[in-house]
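Reply to dn_fold:

You asked what the input looked like. This is it:
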Amino acid sequence: MRRYLNLGLLILMFCPSYLFSQLGKDITDITYRRSSLHTMLIESGAYPMKDTVENVFYEAPFPEKYNNHTVGRKSFDPSKYGGTLGVENPDFDKKAAKSKSAGNPEDQKAIENYLEQEAIARQMIAKWFNRSPNGSFDMNLIGERGSYNASEMEAKIAEGSVRGVASLADAGEELIKNTFVVVTKLNFVKNEPFARAIRDAGLISANQIENELGRDLAIAAAETFYALTKDGYTALAVAYLYQLEWDEETAAIFYQDYWVSEANWDKNRVAAFDTSKIFKMKFVGAEKASSIVAISAGKSMNEIIHLATIRNIDNMYVKLQKKYDVFKTKTPLYSVDPLAAKIGLKEGVKGGDKFEVLEQTIDSKTGKTKYVSKGKITVDRKKIWDNRYNAGEEISVIEVEDEPAESDSAVVASNAMLAGGDDDDVVIEPEPNAAMAGGDDDDVVVLGTDSANAGGNNNNEVVSNGKETAVIKEETQDEVVQPKLNMTYFKGGSKKYYPGMLIRQVK
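and this is what came back:
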């Protein structure tokens, strides 16, 4: 096949990473195909600081790993679409929370009514094809985002030779099909009931520990957790993920029945597109995230809400990406010696995470883009970039998350304040089915505190009984977080890797 492909064009269009690696140009010049996203808010009933929280959402930076494909409004009132202005509350009972899916069926139905009645899918198609006020289309945006020849694509459509045109099919698979809507519901509730529920569950678990020292440590940690967090608020976010449906049948109808250009304008086709019902959004799934924010001196309430809300929204996107492969992003390797990429804590990167290295190429049989796996690399736990919003501020973060123990028979609880010395390790025998409350991968953010209030320097409080581990840790410790880095480093380099190859996290 290579004998009739222009190799230079092939490299330029589909392997730009190779071109830049050979010419020695800055990797930041490389463009790669990203998924596209529209974000919006489903409005809620009254809750503390509601106006401030919602304004933070509207002003938050757009997720940088996606193309901004915003259409229509940024929020809607569910009561106008068959729902109600309810509020999202935290699940205090962890076991009950795990038994039900994220999201609310009533909210989901209102969202789907909104998407259908406001023709969001059709608006997204219109944006992809750069629809003008008179209803005509062009391929400029698709050409720009996908490095396609827009003029050539438009010529093929005008000729009526759409079927079999590899670039059009490729654009559908690579770009249009990877278009999403994330609808978010927010809340901001007082901490005390949430913190008390976590503490009480922790005390129940702690009292089941037979080892006296371990039991005392677990009880003290639960009480410390409560003391640190009871006076603040909990930021909550639930996200509903939808994907634009685009297949061969939909594409054929669009190009044959609705396509109209400036040169061949047709009012009947314009009207047909305006009333079309064939474009749909499909529900992918929902995820929730929560962050406990403790109030302290040195930070205004607005600053606390701003930081907590944005970081909570970022965490919500991380959860969606980890759970739903279709929503996962790809990131180019920035360098190979050392092996590094521009991702970090904001994307949920943790030490030991594995990523697949992909080479973007062309399928010689179909002419479509394909991604060939070239190996796997592992995050260096000592060199992870803290690229979260306002990283480097004097804050302490307490995370309540799933963290597998070294073995099923023992976990380590390490805390100088509780154990009476620096870096003491205490092995606690776990009791079956005993777990802390609080949600998976939830953050507890303490703003404006000093290390004394958080339990001393370079110490972790870990309370675990079985597979659930509550980890109380400071950002200031010499651990995986390094705010001064500007990228994350990996282990497992190979001579076959080059800057610009794409990486994608694997489970």
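Residues 301-323 form the longest helix (23 residues).
Hope that clears it up.
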